[in-house]
Design goal:
Blueprint (H helix, E strand, L loop, with lengths): L5 H4 L3 H40 L2 H34 L3 H26 L17
Helix pairs in contact: 2-3, 3-4
């Protein structure tokens, strides 16, 4: 399959429009994942809170499930930013903005991962949930 260089695609408005729609679709999927995760995890938490009347037992599970939904939504936002940067054009300013957004969202992902599991992501399965990220 012959690859088309990025420079020759710049004049194709239909291709730029397609990338814009794909980027927008990825953003909507990310928002939907976060909303569904928030509603689902909150509903389950409230149900168990009313049924068992025990906050301590289900609070950590609630935070974990809600945090996982946020992490997955953030992944879709990063993918949307990458597609959008390709669609708009590859200037150094665009690449710099993309790099900054990816760094910020990666930091948020790491922070949420530590918050959810209580350890750094590269620590694997040792000591999950102990609450000490060091």
């Amino acid at each position: 399959m012959k690859r088309i260089p990025v420079e020759s695609m710049a004049g194709h408005t239909w291709l730029e429009q397609a990338f814009s729609w794909i980027s927008l679709g990825l953003e909507y999927v990310g928002v939907a994942i976060i909303l569904v995760g928030a509603i689902t995890s909150t509903s389950v938490f409230v149900y168990w809170l009313i049924k068992e009347k025990s906050l301590d037992r289900y609070y950590q599970e609630y935070r974990s499930s809600f945090g996982k939904a946020i992490l997955l939504g953030l992944e879709f936002f990063v993918a949307s930013d990458i597609v959008n940067t390709v669609a708009v054009g590859l200037t150094f300013k665009d690449l710099g903005m993309l790099g900054l957004l990816v760094v910020i969202r990666t930091f948020l992902s790491f922070a949420l991962e530590v918050e959810i599991n209580g350890q750094w992501p590269w620590k694997g399965g040792e000591g999950a949930g102990k609450g000490n990220p060091g």
